[in-house]
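Model the whole thing, not chain by chain.
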Amino acid sequence: MSSETPAAVLKKNLWTDNPIFVQILGICSTLAVTNNLTNTLIMTVAVIFVTGLSNTTVSLLKTLIPRKVRMIVQTLIIAFYVIIVDIALRAYMPEISKALGPYVGLIITNCIIMGRAEAFAQSNPPVLALWDGITSGAGYMGVLVLIAIIRELLGAGSLMGYQIFGEGFTTWTIMVMPPSAFFLLGSIIWAAKTIMFKKEEA
Amino acid sequence: MNKESFLYVVIFTFIVAFVFVFIIALADGATAERVARNRELVTAQAFLNSIGKSEEDGLKALDEFNTIFKDVDAEGVNRAVVNGRDVIVKQFQGNGLWGTITGVLAVDSSLSQIIGLDVISHSETPGLGGRIEEDWFKDQFRGEQIGPDGITVRKGEGGVDDDKANSIVDGITGASLTSDAMEVIINNEIEYLRQEVAK
Amino acid sequence: MTPQINPLVILFASVFTSNILLTNFLGMCSFISISKDMKSSNGLGLAVTVVLTITTAINWAVMNYVLIPLDLMVYRYIVFIIVIAATVQMLEMIIDRVSPALYMSLGIFLPLITVNCAILGVALFMQIRNYNFLQSVFFGLGSGLGWWLAIMALSAINKKVARAPVPGGLQGPGITLITIGFMALAFVGFSGMLNVQ
């Protein structure tokens, strides 16, 4: 497969081929924690970390991995980095680790990471694979952070724990509950696609 | 060696797995002590929160915890003097909707008023039952009078209950089961303490 | 500490009040793409239920008889995933050999399920909540049934939506997600149904 320029990769992963609103991948593991901005930030940084490093590792090992066990080895690599993240969180950020619960482990099944390993890392040099992993994760982070900002701001009147709205603000309870994440995600996809269509027509 | 040969596949997978397992074991070992300390810290902070003395800083929290509570019995009744009052503090555990809810309850020694409570761990649904760990829910219990039947966690009524003397606190919207569970757990704890104190 | 919750309560709760997908956001990827067609949704739902029940049981056994006694819990993510992949692989082979008809309706979905976050998610939840064997099996079964219910409902709604005048940008995943949101909202209405023991 051709080597794309870093700039092209960036644009694709952040916008035109954004993992969430274009490919609709990998939403499971993080939507659950989007009711809180701090947790979402930590989760998405973890995803960027795992995607980047596992992409790099797969790319570095791609000539050595036998075809038969390709999927298993990729899964092992991803699981490895996720466990490292889990250990680090448990030791240095215990409250966040508790709040995130099993969702950190679920990063392993996050379709984006496996998808990038298959689609990109298997056929591109390590440094570019690292960049692709980081930018895919960034595209993912952007959408989820947007959802988290809306949910925490309207659901609790705060952002990252700091009260933004005063006492008089009636919090939107729906924002704290799961359905709001679906609605917001659907709306963001709607907005993004509408903008993309308009750009094509222009 | 042929990359696709059976022998290569086995050796390769073995080596990869070995390297990963090794590094993970290292990381786990290196952080084990820290993780154990974190657990102590959580308990200490929960005890402090329940008596109204929140302390963010880890070291200070452990210090204060050890000063106020001399010998802490994790399962049993702990007495202490806080701001001149005799208090009883006890860790509680009970069935939530999904899993065990663990926390700390502090009451005054005459068992007439709740000093406060804190939630250590739970498995309730995030955003719904999980809100028992939010400050607004826990703070309701501070200074709440304990009635003859204990505390009632009310559900399905609008408005906020501000009355500390009526032994009623507000449940969580959309999480009536977890709210019920908390009521049962706290009242069980109060009942237990009543029997212990009567001895 | 194993919570003293009746396994039937867990079964009921994981279908309705705390649906694995509508409340816990697990199992979404294949959900959104397959839900266009009712027959495949049915097949996938059945496959997910079978796999969830079996793998949760096996993972419980592995966890309690291997990981905990040997203090290997830190590797649980890798072990659970391997158990899931191996179980799915074996199931596929068994079904193919026993009944080609069943394979056509169920077996072809199996590879898709290995990376379904719901399977690993249920195993992890079971571990965190310290369920005993019976509770774990009912949890797996209930989660599968809940997922199946959700995907059938969604594909039925999708058929109607396909004939409605949906704006361009909203077509496809956009309206599907909003539909799921409404379903999730409706399921919140179930939350008063159970009694805590």
